[in-house]
Amino acid sequence: MTQFPVQWRYSDAPVPYPQALAFMEARVRAIRAGEAGECVWLLEHPALYTAGTSADPADLITPDRFEVHKTGRGGEYTYHGPGQRIGYVMLDLRARGGDVRRYVRDLEEWIIRSLARFSVTGERREGRAGVWVRRTDIGAPQREDKIAALGVRVRHWVSMHGISLNVEPDLSHYTGIIPCGIAEHGVTSLMDLGITATMEEVDMALRAEFEAVFSRETAA
Fold first, then answer.
1. What torsion do the CA atoms of 81, 12, 113, 48 make, to the nearest 10 degrees?
2. Which residues, at least 6 apart from 24, have a Cβ–Cβ distance to it below 8 Å?
3. Is the torsion defined by CA of 5, 11, 14, 15 positive or negative?
4. Residue 90: Cβ within 10 Å count
5. What pLDDT is recorded for position 179?
6. Long-range contacts from 140-145, C-beta under 8 angstroms, 24+ separation
7. Residue ranges of the alpha helices (H) in the chain?
8. Residues 6+ apart with CB under 8 A from 36
9. Which of 93, 115, 147, 180 is catalytic?
10. Global confidence as pTM
């Protein structure tokens, strides 16, 4: 069991990426030292690209379009911006069983369950990180678009970074990169799927399903 309950933080105004990174790093140190509890921070960023530890420079198509931030999370290039809900998750994985692979699957499960609250079927794909949607809404069941990404870093058994869920971002901003190094599939959002959802509604779904998924780990 963890010493403190999970703290939830919400930011309505876009948070600069360096500010969010500094908070995560400080919180991870505090969690490891037993001075603070676990934390989930739901926020948006200004339009920017991030490069994970496996990022291929060739996948940055328009490097001058937005700020590019190198980050210690796993994965390749991704986009963050207004209309996209970021969930930064800082958990003590050692107190939750010490299984990083299971943690990643639980992040996916968290997204899938949250999407189900909006009648969207999110799916995993072997070899393709994130959560995917079959585009039956446009009569193209063979087409799959990415609706949510995840990137994880674990430092001293405390997690950093987390998930990004497309609610209503400008999808044209993805054309400046090859998202996660995958060129043969597109991206989508709740709005693109015809679903109007407020950030408050998305936050409510994320919080409820987080408790459903991750309470299992605390109890395990």
1. 10
2. 41, 88, 90, 160, 161
3. negative
4. 26
5. 77
6. 143/185, 143/186, 144/185, 145/185, 145/186, 145/187, 145/188, 145/192
7. 17-32, 100-116, 199-219
8. 4, 7, 27, 30
9. 180
10. 0.92
Cα–Cα distance for residue pair 20/160, rounded to 1 Å: 11
Beta bridge partners of 148: 131, 165
Task: Tell me the CB-side half-sphere exposure of residue 43, using CA atoms within 13 A.
Answer: 24
* Nearest residue to 45 via CA among 164, 128, 144: 164
| Spacing of C-alpha 51 from chain mean position | 14
Dihedral sign, Cα of residue 24, residue 61, residue 174, residue 135: negative
Q: Which two tokens stand for residue 215?
A: 């309470």
3-state SS class at 39: strand
Residue 39 is among the residues annotated as catalytic for this protein:
no
Using CA atoms of 52, 57, 59, 60 in order, give the dihedral in degrees to the nearest 10.
Answer: 90
Q: Are 150 and 163 in contact (CB under 8 A)?
A: yes
Q: Distance from CA of residue 64 to its chain's centroid?
A: 24
Per-residue pLDDT tens, the chain, 220 aa: give them: 456 789 999 999 999 999 999 999 999 999 999 999 999 999 999 999 999 888 889 999 998 999 999 988 888 899 999 999 999 999 999 999 999 999 999 999 999 999 999 999 999 998 787 899 998 877 776 789 999 999 999 999 999 999 999 999 999 999 999 876 666 788 999 999 999 999 999 999 999 999 999 985 543 3
- How many C-beta neighbours within 10 Å does residue 70 have? 10
